[in-house]
Amino acid sequence: MGGGIGPEFIEKTKYKYLGASGQQKGLRPPPLEADFGKGGEKFDLPGPDKVESELKKYIDGRTSVREYRDEPISKNELSYLLWCTQGVKVVDGMHTFRTVPSAGARHALETFILVNNVDGLAAGVYRYLALEHKIQEFVMRQAVAGKIAYACFGQDFVKKGAVTFIWVAVTDRMTWRYSERGYRYILLDAGHVCQNLYLAAESIGCGVCAVGAYDDDIINTLLGLDGRSEFVIYIAATGKKRKES
């Protein structure tokens, strides 16, 4: 990987470099909708219920859930969630076409999962091998869940759900084609993947909470990543919803 602005952006947006935000300074929040000046005539739209779609109820129910039932998910359910988020549909030379979009079909993310409560699987961190649709033991040390929760600034729900997804950016896979612009595309890809997790989880009675607050250096070290060419970019916990959710 080169030494352009992309690596500097990732480094300088770590928590240790952040100044006080507008909220912390007591400033008023910006408006909920931007004002771009006078436009043309406005038109009413029909309600979304005018189109019959099974997907609508999952989008309706989608919300961030931080509390889960103490109930395992099955291997079938784990397989389904992994396939929905990074499943490979076609391998075409040096490209893959998957269940989520990616700029240039580069798919510069790797999926790791912290397994806490899955039928038939020991607790620990596994890597998802998308090309084979298999998982592989990666970090099986005792108390790794607690260390990951610590890296997430004590957000304990990451160790209390059934599975926590940890997505790792492999920058060269994207910048090989798009140079520094590739860093933008990696961020977009992470959003695509996590939204698929939210909707797929909703369809099997699970809830999800995405996590962007974590100590980059600690969690990268836990996974043996160099923090520059490979680094954690997004995290999301999931587990069976409580009835009140």
Q: What do you see in this structure?
A:
This protein has eight helices and eight strands. The protein is an alpha+beta fold. It has one domain: NADH Oxidase. A hairpin with an 8-residue loop joins strand 3 and strand 4. The model has no long low-confidence stretch (mean pLDDT 95).
CATH superfamily: NADH Oxidase
Order of helices and strands: HHHEEEEEHHEHHEHE
CATH architecture: 3-Layer(aba) Sandwich
pLDDT average, as an integer? Answer: 95
Number of helices: 8
Distance between the termini: 44 Å
Report the radius of gyration as a whole number of Å: 20 Å
**Helix content range of the residues, please?**
25-40%
Low-pLDDT sequence parts: none
- Total beta strands: 8
* General form: globular
Strand proportion:
15-25%
Strand order of the largest sheet: 5-4-3-6-8-7
- The overall number of domains is 1
- Largest sheet: number of strands, sense, barrel closure: 6 strands, antiparallel
Question: What is the structure about, briefly put?
Answer:
By secondary structure, the chain is an alpha+beta fold.
Descriptive terms for the model:
245 residues, alpha+beta, NADH Oxidase, two-stranded antiparallel ribbon
Describe how the helices and strands are arranged:
Elements lengths: L4 H8 L42 H7 L13 H12 L1 E5 L2 E4 L10 E7 L8 E6 L4 E6 L4 H8 L5 H4 L2 E8 H8 L3 H21 L3 E6 L4 H7 L7 E11 L5
Antiparallel strand pairs: 1-2, 3-4, 3-6, 4-5, 6-8, 7-8
Helix pairs in contact: 3-7, 4-8, 6-7
